[in-house]
Amino acid sequence: MNRTSQKEVIEAIRSVSQSIGAKVLTQKQFFSNSNITISDVSRYFPKWSDACKAAGVDYDISRDKIPEEDLLMDWGRVVRSLGYIPSLNEYKVKGRFSRHAFNRFGSWVDVPEAFNNFFAGSDEWEDVLAILPTASPKTKRTRAILESRINHKSGTSRWHEKLDRRPTYGDPIDFRGLRHAPVNEQGVVFLFGMVARELGYLVEAIQGGFPDCEAKRQISRGQWQPVSIEFEYASKNFAEHGHDGKNCDVIVCWTHNWQECPEHLEVIVLSEVIKNFNKKIK
């Protein structure tokens, strides 16, 4: 599958803006009227406004102006639900906003200090404040120590600061030829390809636009039906990307975190699927 170039993304933004006559182009308008995916855009532009600026198109400034309080409150809500400071991947699953929205606070490990400073003395967030480190991180080494914590499942593993220019892997799963769990949509696509036939799907085509995949599945002896499939790392990304549920039948994801998912959308959760395959093997 050919990767969409930065030039193609820019040209698509200009084309959609002109074709729909939008004074201000929103992400939802763009993705609903083009074959470009959110991954294509974020590959070259950290923010929607950056993409629009490059294309010379007016953008929805509200996407860039999330109040600090809203960001930190959502982060605090995740801390409260977990009982500890979330990793970036944990926040991606449970939180509302993108990682880029938090760049104003520095690196990811600086968010606890920002929350501490903003809500210091607040009775509403007293339980969350009690979880956070009280010392202000001064150096890279100190931040790494503060970020490290005992893994709640094993009681032994420590988390360390992420190094630059190194790949990031998911938890070890050793499922057939895949050593680690997916950490993005591409990993979900690859894993689905490994198990599609066993799940009863025949893939006809995979494309860059919505929906990602056209497939057929058997409904009875000698009878198959076409279905449209959208791949997401987390099911909630479907709504965040502005996809229209009326034009899709199945979401294939690694984790299912979309409580408001419409009933007509079937969700295949690959993290659960491979557990069942492993049980059969044993």
Query: In CATH's first tier, which class of the largest domain applies?
Result: Alpha Beta
Radius of gyration: 21 Å
Spatial shape: globular
Determine the N-to-C terminus distance. 36 Å
Number of domain modules: 3
Helix content: 25-40%
- CATH topology of the largest domain, what is it called? Trna Endonuclease, Chain: A, domain 1
CATH architecture of the largest domain: 3-Layer(aba) Sandwich
State the major sheet.
5 strands, mixed
- Number of β-strand runs: 7
Strand order of the largest sheet: 3-4-5-6-7
Strand content: 5-15%
| Poorly predicted sequence stretches spanning 5 or more consecutive residues | 135-157
- Listing every helix as H and every strand as E from the N terminus to the C terminus, the arrangement reads HHHHHHHHHEEHEEEHEEH
> Please, what is the average pLDDT?
82
Strand-pairing-aware structural class: alpha/beta
Task: Give the number of helices.
Answer: 12
